[in-house]
Amino acid sequence: MHLLDWIMVSAYFVLMVVIGLWSHSRVNTVSDFFTAGGKMPWWLAGISHHMSGYSAVLFVAYAGVAYTDGITVYFWGMASIGIGVGIGSWLFASRWNRLRSKLGVASPLEYLAKRFNVPTQQALAWSGSLLKIFDIAAKWFAVATILNVFAGVPYTWGIIITGSITLIYCTVGGLWADALTDFGQFVIQAIAAIVMLWVVLDKLGGVSGLWTVWGDLPPAHLNPTTSKFTTVVLLVYVLVKTLEYNGGMWNLAQRYMAAPNTYEARRGARLSSILYLVWPLVMMFPMFAAPLLIPNISNPNNAYAIMTTTFLPPGLVGLVLAGIFSHTMAMVSSDANAISAVITRDMMPVLWKKARDFTESQGLLAARVSTVIFVVLTMAVATQAEKLGGVLGIVVLWVAALMGPISVPLLLGMLPAFRRSGSRAALISWAGGLVAYAIAYYGYNATLAVTVSTPILVSLALFIGLGYLMPERKASTDEIIDTIDRDDDLTPRKSQDGTTVPA
């Protein structure tokens, strides 16, 4: 890369660290660190939710699928998320917010000990944390791949550089730092994406390329589904993403919890949903056009990076690279904060009695130490990502398939319709989903559709079925569900001038 590119990338890293250090002054309590004290405005919560949901995987693995298969990757990879978050805006966002405002919950798993029992909470905490280590490792490897193609930086050093910068600002600033850097990253990424789109359209003959390009691509590239990414995969992904992006991926639940009230939480979710449906089309158009501009490349996963280094002038290459960094750093920092919340609030008090009586300062120190340990561990695993199935293998076959069994008890446990499903249903559905995945993937070497769909469908059937066949309804369960099902005085009202304000 040119010196100008390195200046752009370095300036981006410095900006992220500065935001993290500034956010440090806003963090005085554990609640500030994990849920921003419930003071995050809806637009910031929505943008942060959006930015925390995808990473450099989009520019590596998904770009590779766009190169070989076309628009199908948008439908199962992005539109499914937009639909899922839209569903969650009225089904889950307000309930997550009430868990914080009414029950004082600071961790996404904290309520499970009372809703089910401590063993259920611990099973989900440990298995979810382990899965997240591999998920984030895939993200580090993806961004290291980009840095390797752009500048020839060895994979290990790429992981160390991006991981270390992220570690600094998310450790000192907590959720406020995550959200504010998410916003800064969104602006940088938007500029980078528009620059890339403009250059690609210029190569295609102008703005008319937006509609003429489709006639030049192979006809199969225009199909929403393919023999591998079938209609079944698409429908299952909508179900998986509805659970994953509304709390199954714990960091995204925190965005709903951080909003001042339920009205603001729902607005933030709707903003994120719209962004997922619209904005990926801007970012992915160059990926769809790539077969016409750089045909016959040996590794499709490098398509976006090759176009960037080939078509953009010095300075702009660094801008696009910073934009790609922004996605991974946004997701990883928010994941690290969520995992730290689970470790500090849910796991440590069970393992270590002294942790139950931590002061605010001790709790903050424990949160920051656990964040450091978690991120360093993900970086270590990232160096072995190729041996674990590569980026797409980890993200699709591991995370998408295993997120369901972890998400089903966590999210359905909040809904009144499933109040009869207790700890027995939760644990059996979790274990049954994991066993179903092992049988499908390792026992029968099943197709992608079967591998992704089997665990979540088995978990759903067990959780719902056992609730009806062997109900475990309790007064404490009813109390929790009824509490988070009502707005009470948190419902916004109209002021005299007609504007909407919190109650």
Automatic annotation (TrEMBL):
**TM spans, by residue?**
6-22, 42-67, 73-93, 130-151, 157-176, 183-201, 221-240, 274-297, 303-325, 363-382, 388-413, 425-444, 450-470
Establish whether keyword Transmembrane helix is in the entry: yes
What are the alphabetically sorted keywords of the record? Answer: Cell membrane, Ion transport, Membrane, Sodium, Sodium transport, Transmembrane, Transmembrane helix, Transport
InterPro entries listed in its UniProt record: Na/Glc_symporter_sf (IPR038377), Na/solute_symporter (IPR001734), Sodium:Solute_Symporter_SSF (IPR051163)
Which cell locations does it reside in?
Cell membrane
Q: How does it sit in the membrane?
A: Multi-pass membrane protein
Kindly state one GO CC term assigned in the UniProt record: plasma membrane
- GO annotation (BP), single: sodium ion transport
What Pfam families would the database entry show?
Answer: SSF (PF00474)
Molecular function (GO) terms for this protein are: symporter activity
- State the source organism's domain of life: Bacteria
User: Belongs to which family?
Assistant: Belongs to the sodium:solute symporter (SSF) (TC 2.A.21) family.
Give the protein's recorded name: Na+:solute symporter
Q: What is the originating organism of this protein?
A: Amycolatopsis thailandensis
